[in-house]
């Protein structure tokens, strides 16, 4: 097996893809505006992420499981996402996604891009409908940082050989821990604290920063 040269770990909502999945789910149940307001506050670091996620998910109670197929059709990869993944794979990188969103959506986005690792939340479904509950441990900022470390260790990589990309307060610990932490079209609190930033919605620009600093 060829040597692994590096690891890229990315957030999903408003990073790998242009949308916030939970806001799209909210629109489907007529509560899009209420959920979007909570999402925005959580991203800015004004609300505890775990508490805000539980609050938003509770509003999704009663949605049919088929909603995931409908929402998936409305999602768009951010410009440069597919090219970034392809280029880094060709360079011997592993790529992971860590998301405060949901496996039901993220797994399918990841499969298309042949992503190596995925960690996200899972929504509880009973008799074909969402219960308004999250199953298991919620992906917090601490979990995102831990996954970066775990995947690096699994590949015998020093953390200095890792790249992290994200846009919200929930990404900050991961960005600070990585060898190269990049705030991507990020909220003010993230831009202020990250060492590097990209402020144009083009993920392929990550390559330039890797070539320059890693």
Automatic annotation (TrEMBL):
Reaction catalysed by this enzyme: O-phospho-D-serine + H2O = D-serine + phosphate; O-phospho-L-serine + H2O = L-serine + phosphate
Domain of life assignment: Bacteria
Pathway where this protein functions: Amino-acid biosynthesis; L-serine biosynthesis; L-serine from 3-phospho-D-glycerate: step 3/3
EC number of this enzyme: 3.1.3.3
Cofactor(s) essential for the protein: Mg(2+)
InterPro entries found in the cross-reference section: HAD-like_SerB, HAD-like_sf, HAD_sf, PSP
Molecular-function annotations in GO: hydrolase activity
Record's keyword annotation contains Cell division: no
Record key words, sorted: Amino-acid biosynthesis, Hydrolase, Magnesium, Metal-binding, Serine biosynthesis
Record-linked SUPFAM superfamilies: HAD-like
Similarity section: Belongs to the HAD-like hydrolase superfamily. SerB family.
Protein name: phosphoserine phosphatase
Organism of origin: Streptococcus pacificus
Taxonomic placement: Bacteria, Bacillati, Bacillota, Bacilli, Lactobacillales
